[in-house]
Here is the input.
Amino acid sequence: MGQFAVIGLGRFGSSVATNLVRMGHEVLAIDLNEARVREMADEVTHAVEANANDEEALKALGIRNFDVVIVSIGQDMQASILCVLILKELGVKYIVAKAVSEAHGKVLEKVGADRVVYPERDMGARVAHNLVAPNLLDYIELAPGYSIVEVVAKPEFYDKSLRELGFRAKYGIIITAIKRGKQVIIAPGADDVIREGDILVAIGEDTKLDKLEHLHG
Here is the structure.
């Protein structure tokens, strides 16, 4: 279980926070807007009203102890840049910051953001999945509770056929393709074998796909 803090509870920040909680992680949600904090109170581990540019307030919340801090402040570029600077100075391990433009993103990188995301390109759910599953390459929500993911094959899967691994029978997950270098095996059969370096394209319910990270062949 990871510990995440989300600063800024607009549509994007709220989406990241709720998805991280659904995946079983602890989330501290921070916003200056009391109404937004109240709305998120039952959705996250802790929701706090605080100024993201107040170094003492962030220090008091123990912000440096979180594994990842996501800065999702709205259109106020100056506030988001200052927040990243403060987090960096406080020794936060990994900072993800939302940018509203390419120029804003470049400044965020220069002041210390480890990763910059653009909401137009990175939906909150996709960012949340990628943060907690480094070998999860892509995530697309097909419908509520139902997604398609690309995940790097784990060593436990090497040299075993889809029949042996039993993704469908045991876990309710369907492997729709195997990417192997430049080759793509569409609709692989039960006797297709997984090799080192393969990327699996899987489809299924979110609760079952989440387990893909922890499956042992």
Summary: The chain has a mean pLDDT of 86. The domain at 135-214 is CATH 3.30.70.1450 (Alpha-Beta Plaits). The CA atoms of residues 151 and 197 lie 10 Å apart.
